[in-house]
User: Fold Glutamyl-tRNA(Gln) amidotransferase subunit A from Alcanivorax nanhaiticus.
Amino acid sequence: MHTKTLTELKAGLANGDFSSRELTEHFLARIKQFDGELNSFVTVTEQQALAQADAADQAIAAGQTGLLTGLPIAHKDIFCTEGVRTSCGSKMLDSFIAPYTATVVNKMASEGAVMLGKTNMDEFAMGSSNETSYYGPVKNPWDLERVPGGSSGGAAACLGARLAPAATGTDTGGSIRQPAALNNITGLKPTYGRVSRWGMIAFASSLDQAGPMGQSAEDCALMLQAMAGHDHRDSTSLNQKVDDYLGALKEDISGLTIGIPEEFFPDTLDGAIADNSRAAIRELEKLGAKVVSVSLPSIKLSVPAYYVIAPAEASSNLSRFDGVRFGHRCDDPKDLEDLYKRSRSEGFGDEVKRRILVGTYALSAGYYDAYYRRAQQVRRLIRDDFARAFEKVDVLMGPTAPETAFKLGAKKDDPVSMYMADVFTIGVNLAGLPALSMPTGFINGLPTGTQVIGNYFREGQILNVAHKYQQVTDWHRQLPTFGGEQ
Ligand code: GLN
Assistant:
C-alpha cells in the first residue's frame, strides 16, 4: 500500500480495496519498523489515528466522505494539535500540550484526514538540515549518513521512505521545497496568505506559509484543496476564492511560457544540478511549452535581506517564550531576571539564539535604518524583479537547491554555508509568490529537484506544470532502498 500515491489510496478506499484502519495500521507498522533509524517523527499518535480511521470507515460506509476521508497524513510539529505535544523541535516546548488545533490541521481533519503523528523539524523551523532539532537529526532515507534538508526534514524523510503517504510542512525561506528536493518528493509553498497561519508557531510572520508535501503534484493539489482558504482568525490570510486545483491539472500547457532566470544557473553551480533542471525544462518544451531567458537582477540580495528580516521577526515572535506563560522554566529562579535569563538560555538551542541576537541587533535604535529598513527596500526590489518577469512569462524554473543532500555535520559549524542551501528558494518568500519543487533525477544516487515558480495565486498552474511533467517521467516514483522498497 505504501507504494501508492495519496490519490491512488483515495481510489483504493473508495473501491473498498482496503479500509482506512488497514491503511493506517500499515503506516503505523512502517513507522515502528523504520523510524528508529530515520527519526522523522517526534510523536506518533497511534490511538488517535486508529480512532480517526474507524470513524473514517464508518463515514465511507455511510457514503459521507470528504476530500481526505480515511487518508493518513503526518503533520509537522509546528502546528498546534489539541491534547498532543507540539514541540516545534525545541526543548522550550518539549512539555507543551497545545490547548487548541491549528486551522490547517482542523481543515484537513474536517475533510476526514487521519493524523499519524507530528514530524521532526529544525528548532523553530530555523535550519536547512534538520540538525538543530532538540530531538536529534533526521536521516535522509536515500543515504542515512546524509541530512534530509530542513526545516521540514522529518516530513520530507518520512514521506521519502513512505512511512506516511503525505505530510504538511511550512516554508519561510525554502523549508518545504529544499527538503522535498533532497528526498525525491513534491512540495508546494503557496502564495503568502493563501493558507491560514493560525495555530502554526510563528518564526517570521511576513514569510511563513504552510503547504502540502506529497508524492506527486496531484497529491499536493488534493491536499491544498483542503488546506487553502480564508480564516478570520488570521488577519494575513486572504479573502480570495479557492481555485479548483484538481481541475487545473486538466488544462493544456501548450503555449505556456517558461522563463529561465539566468541567476538560477550561475557559473559556480554544480554542472550536474544544472543539467537535471535543464533536462526537465526540455521535457516540458516537448509538451509544447516555450522557453525564454529572463533576469532577476536583485535576487542575489535575497539571502542577505532574508537574514536580516527573518531574524528580526523571529526575535520579536520568540520573546513570548519567557518561562512564565508557557514553555520551559528553569529550576529555582533567584528573581524574575534570573527566571527569564536561565529559562531562555536552557530552552533555546544555538541557532535560535544566534537568530535572536542578530534580529535584536538589527531592530535596535540606531541600527534599524541601516539594516531592517534597508532589507525591506531590497525586498521590494526583488518583488519588482519577479513582477517584471511575470509580465513576459507564465512560470519561472530552475534548480531548487544548489547541491544534493550533504553529510550530517558537514555544515554544522559554518552557518553561512548552511544559509546558502536556500539561495534559490528565499527570493520567492520575500516576494510572497507560490512555488513548488518536483523530483527531476539523481546524481550519484541522490535526488535533485527543480523549482516551478508562479505568479500570485497561480498554484493551480504550477501544480499543472509539475503534473504534466510527472505524467511523462517517473522520477517521482523512484523509492530509496531504505524503507521504500521493502
Ligand atoms: N533554511 C532557512 C532558515 O534557516 C529557511 C527555513 C524555513 O523555511 N523555515 O531560516
Remarks:
- The mean pLDDT is 97.
- The pocket of glutamine is lined by residues 125-128, 151, 171-175, 203, 310, 422 (CB under 6 Å).
